[in-house]
Design a protein that fits this description.
Blueprint (H helix, E strand, L loop, with lengths): L1 E5 L3 H13 L3 E5 L2 H10 L4 E4 L2 E2 L2 E2 H10 L9 E5 L4 H9 L4 E4 L4 H51 L8 E6 L7 E7 L5 E8 L4 H19 L4 H15 L6 E9 L4 E7 L4 E5 L4 E4 L19 E4 L3 E7 L1 H4 L11 H9 L7 H13 L8 E6 L1 H9 L13 E8 L2 H4 L2 H11 L4 H23 L10 H15 L7 E9 L4 E8 L21 H8 L2 E5 L4 E7 L3
Parallel strand pairs: 1-2, 1-3, 3-6, 6-7
Antiparallel strand pairs: 4-5, 8-17, 9-10, 10-11, 11-12, 12-15, 13-14, 13-16, 16-17, 18-19, 19-20, 20-22, 21-22
Helix pairs in contact: 6-7, 13-14, 14-16
Length: 556
Amino acid sequence: MRVLVVEDDSLFAEILQTFLEDNGCVTIAAETLSDAKLLVLSSTFDFILLDNHLPDGDGLNFLSTIKDTSVQGKSSPVMMITADDNQNTILEAFENGADDFLAKPLSLDLLWQKMQRVRRLYDKESQLEEQAKHLSNLLNKQEQEEQLARYVYEHVAANFQTETECVDTYIQSSSAFNGDVFICDTAPNGNRFVILADATGHGLSAAISILPLVTTIKAMIRKGLALAHIIHEANKKLCKELPDDKFVTLIGVEINFHKQNFSLFNGGMPDLIALRHDLKVERYPSTSMALGILEPDDFDPGIVSIEAHPYRNLFFFSDGLIEQQNPSKQEFGMQRVIELIENNNSKEPLVSRVVNHFTIFNEMEELQDDLSVCDLQLSDLIDAHLYDNKSSDDEQTGKVHAYLRLSGGIIGTCDIVGCFDSLMRGIDVIGDARQKAFTVFAELISNALDHGILDLDSQLKNDVAGFAEYIELKEDRLSNISDESALEMTFSFEPGVGEIEFSIKDTGSGYQLKSDSSMINEGLSGRGLPLIEKLCKSVEVTPPGNQTSVVLKREF
């Protein structure tokens, strides 16, 4: 220990120095306050023994100088040693920063014990200060990282909900990051998707686990895949990438404006509440496991198809709404939500009504889980689509004719439907006509590829095990397409007439035909010719059933 002795009594100072050096200390003596100040400014000491009455002043007044002029921000413990032992002097010494006080004459052994005790306290305080600084630096670094992660999350999440027409949403996080996310988007065929996903837990870990899934779902929607295919692929991805204790619950709605119905998937979420036009409610509970739990072979998407016309609103939410407890430990509960919807006689939006009552019920308690609420105004959305302005540019003239032939393995890797949609966008085919054409083209390509070239049996998709087998067989056969296999496509568009014609031919064996040239297999690719015939002006199937030609006419 390095000790500074400030003492004008040279004999006493020598006694102290000898004693301290015998105990392993390095000692330096100063007889005046000015000498002591120079030493304090130029060096560091582990301990300072300070007399009060010195030739150039009192030690009491020097205490603040010692504390203020410590080298490298490190202060030294100071013990006052003086013959002045009245209580006022002792009190003033402690007020000015002394760490201990010892009156002369003193016991050297007692001095040593006091010095060791004070030094240990200083060392502990210094250690705590260092730990506090280190913790503060870590917290600042964590805060900066969270700010960056929050910015990235909010930027990415903002792109999930690209369609907001007739869709009211409310989302509140229980922490800095949200494990709930909405997806609202329109597929190239015009179908509208509204999806709410809720990852296990909450906070950053939940947000990180759900972002890649949502990005994948968005990409599959843009490719024109149906809800059943999207859900199956999403479950497959989560089974592969998430830990065993993580999963994602999800409600997915796909609205088909052409067929005036919607497909519904509920995997592990609270009941979807469907409000009818007569203000009665129907509940659609979860019919499937959450995503990421069951392997693809065991997973049943449980998709249901429902006619849209009886319903006004589809109201759904994460379990953070109904499981939240107020200060009395009561849950908000499903029944309370249903009553709020049934008794909503005002013009107040459903989301606002439920959230306002939830806020009053919760009494500003901290959220126990992320909270998300969605009101899909189904009838308004369908009406808006049906009566949307469908005017076209009558001055556009000319005609577009395109021919494309694919053969061999490139058939399995080329995004044929995406190319077709890009072609229609590039030549400014009007929105509603493009959506109908996309739907028909996607159906016919799916039939030509799956049942013609790949020779897959559509009956496999009638049950859960078959659907998984169907997907696996398709992936396997896509990677082994022979060079002799081919797809031929022709496309014609005449803007002034408003007609789109295209023909698709495959090298498969074709289908058995009825006498009216329609296919016997009514379940063609899940929807088949009935949908195609509904959307087209004419449909012609050429024997033996491996070529289909259609004409679509736009309704001006």
